[in-house]
Amino acid sequence: MDFISAGDIEKYSYCPLSWWLSRIEKDTNEEGVKKHRELGEKIDKLRGERRKIKTRESLVLYYSLAATLISLLGISLFYSSLFLGKFFISISILWIIIALYLLWKYEKGTFVERKTEKVMLLASSFSTIFSIFSVTFILPPNYLLGYLFEIASLLWLIFATYFLYLTLKSEITYNEINKELKLPDGEIIYVDDLEKAPIVKSEKYGIWGRPDLLIKIGEDYIPIEIKTGRIPRGPLFSHIMQLTAYMLLVEENYAAPPYGILKYGNIIYRIDYNEDLKNLLLKKVDEMRKALKTGEVHRNHNRRGKCLHCARRENCPERLA
Q1: Edge-to-edge strand order for the sheet containing 4-5?
Q2: Which CATH fold topology does 4-46+184-308 show?
Q3: pTM, whole model, 2 decimals?
């Protein structure tokens, strides 16, 4: 089965004859390619800044937590208290019991969520930390070691402050780019950069394509098609068909999206994904396959304005203008 691209589906949906001529001419819109590449670079930078923010936020949290624990450990070295030692060892035992209980449940298959492993790790970590506190409170005071821990705590706090600064810097860059692009807030899964982006295929229906953008919002994967040309009064049928092709590809490779997004400049249209739209797309694909076999294609409209805006008007034998 020959694969048909989402881009060809868009051209065919605009006008079958225009699509057929585009296959013969093999024309390239260099200005469109340039704009598309620039857009891809901006989106890729946006994705990079979002990753930096998430990574740096984690580092801020880890360094701050480490600084707090080291500081508390240093303070514990200034005092000697049998009561506090017993108190912390009791808490430590409690946490290790919780960790063992979770491990037992996990082995029995009662818990299958991935979060269970994180909870067990946290419980074991807290148990270890409180065990250390129980020992330091029982031992005689050690002022030198206590001061060293306090100095180390300050150093870790400096690291946390530095990564907080980098996080805020990335957030400013991210917000500036996002303000310009006006994209939905979510995790960017895929960006079409025309060179590195892999082709997304539907083996079942013989369709392939590269959506401009794929964003994960909650548990949903939302394809976004961004048009850089003139802004129409409403979403064009050909663009809806192209977006539907991307939604079908997302359904087969990720999960069925509830909708897709068409973006013209700052105007955003949300196109719901349903069986009627999917069947209409597949009907168009069947028509294209028949045309490829027979070689017979004709104009399917009587709109003069459509011909005026067609890039293949000059060579079209059935043009209206």
Answers
A1: 4-5, 207-209, 200-202
A2: Lambda Exonuclease; Chain A (3.90.320)
A3: 0.70
